[in-house]
UniProtKB/TrEMBL annotation:
GO terms for molecular function: cysteine-S-conjugate beta-lyase activity. Its EC number is 4.4.1.13. This is Cystathionine beta-lyase. It comes from Labrys monachus. Its cofactor is pyridoxal 5'-phosphate. The keyword S-adenosyl-L-methionine does not apply. It is an enzyme of class 4 (lyase). Belongs to the trans-sulfuration enzymes family. Keywords: Lyase, Pyridoxal phosphate.
Length: 396
């Protein structure tokens, strides 16, 4: 097998890049996958090598062949200048924010952000003297009025967590850059396969790799990718903070990454079929899925995105809590659990009204978030059909 020049990788298709990125079989005796290096101490051949750091690896926390392989593979698909690997998605969020914010700075945070992201801002960033202002995800060019001289970062998440509002990323990024602010994006829902964050003006891209990168609900993992402007500060903070991801989780993330393309396309196809079926059901008030024609964010999704994933929400007709529980508790194929992105389908009830501050969440009925896994769609629809029958009966 001919050795591939690393400079060639960017010219290949995305599925090819997913398969070959970070792989160097010649370096590990021809084995297809890189070995898992468990280690802290790295021995130097001489005192001078030790003191001058002449070796590629000096200490396990600062990188191993295993972490290098995944970082290279992620760069091959997202086009970034550099990537850091974190022990969870939330760790990736906090790492990205702390790499570009200091005491006295101001942060603009989208009101539809992942709940633990808000908690980090309101707790830890406030403790460090960093002020957070939440803004409407649909603000568009109105973001300019919220920018201050000390606004150092603007954080986006599109579509919004649970509520699935679509943000105009290039518009907001352009305005933020004119004012000298760093633009951060949580790109977990679409992944770089379906949304090119750096091509749309983002400086720091965050992924909760626990979801689609790992893809099997068996590891905690996060990643932050940076463009050239943001990379030095991200790399410096990451090293100084002593962050690193465990070798076994890194290996599982690498294994999951190889099949991301085929899994994500199947999640997309199945989710769209289920979403279209649900949109016709009388028990469902609304389906929140930006890839559907009637969704308020569809135009932006169609303009900027290459696809959609398996996660979306529905708003049921007004009903007591017992009716929602009857719908969910009897499901056969939808587990009741947090997270998403694995091979299995999941469902959770949700209500954004108790934490939104820049917007009001009043959708007209109870919300349920669904992750459509890799089961047969016919089985999932039959399961939901029975669940909606229980909902009707309990609703009265």
């Amino acid at each position: 097998m001919k050795k591939i020049n690393k400079n060639e990788i960017a010219t290949f298709g995305e599925n090819t890049r997913l398969v070959i990125g970070g792989r160097e079989p010649d370096d590990y005796h021809g084995f297809v996958n890189p070995p898992v290096y468990h280690g802290s101490t790295v021995l130097a051949p001489t005192t001078r090598d030790l003191l001058d750091h002449t070796q590629r690896y000096a200490y396990g926390r600062r990188g191993t062949p295993t972490t290098d392989a995944l970082e290279q593979a992620l760069r091959a698909i997202d086009g970034s200048a550099g990537v850091v690997l974190c022990p969870s998605g939330l760790a990736a969020v906090s790492t990205a924010l702390l790499s570009c914010l200091s005491a006295g700075d101001h942060l603009l945070m989208v009101d539809s952000a992942y709940g633990p992201t808000r908690h980090f801002c309101d707790g830890q960033l406030a403790r460090f003297g960093i002020e957070t202002t939440y803004y409407d995800p649909l603000i568009g060019e109105g973001i300019e009025a919220l920018l201050r001289p000390n606004t150092k970062a603007v954080y986006l998440e599109t579509p919004g967590s649970q509520s699935f509002e679509m943000q105009d990323v290039p518009l907001i990024a352009g305005i933020a850059h004119r004012h000298g602010a760093t633009v951060l994006l949580d790109n977990t829902w679409a992944t770089p396969l379906f949304f090119d964050a750096f091509g749309h003006g983002v400086d720091l891209m965050i992924q909760a790799g626990t979801k689609y990168i790992v893809g099997h609900s068996d590891a905690m993992f996060g990643a932050v990718s940076a463009n050239r402007k943001a990379w030095p500060a991200l790399k410096g903070f990451y090293g100084d903070a002593g962050l690193c991801a465990g070798p076994d989780d890194v290996y599982l993330a690498m294994r999951g990454l190889r099949t991301l393309g085929v899994r994500l396309r199947q999640h997309q196809e199945s989710a769209l079929r289920v979403a279209k079926w649900l949109a016709k059901r009388p028990e469902v008030l609304r389906v929140l899925h930006p890839a559907l024609d009637g969704d308020p964010g569809h135009a932006i999704w169609k303009r900027d995105f290459k696809g959609s994933s398996g996660l979306f929400s529905i708003v049921l007709q007004p009903a007591p809590e017992a009716a929602v529980e009857a719908f969910l508790d009897g499901l056969k194929f939808f587990g009741l659990g947090y997270s998403w992105g694995g091979f299995e389908s999941l469902a959770i009830p949700f209500d954004c009204s108790h934490y939104r501050t820049a917007t009001t969440w009043n959708p007209g009925g109870p919300g349920v978030r669904l992750h459509i896994g890799l089961e047969d769609v016919e089985d999932l629809i039959a399961d939901l059909d029975a669940g909606l029958a229980r909902f009707r009966a309990a609703r009265g």
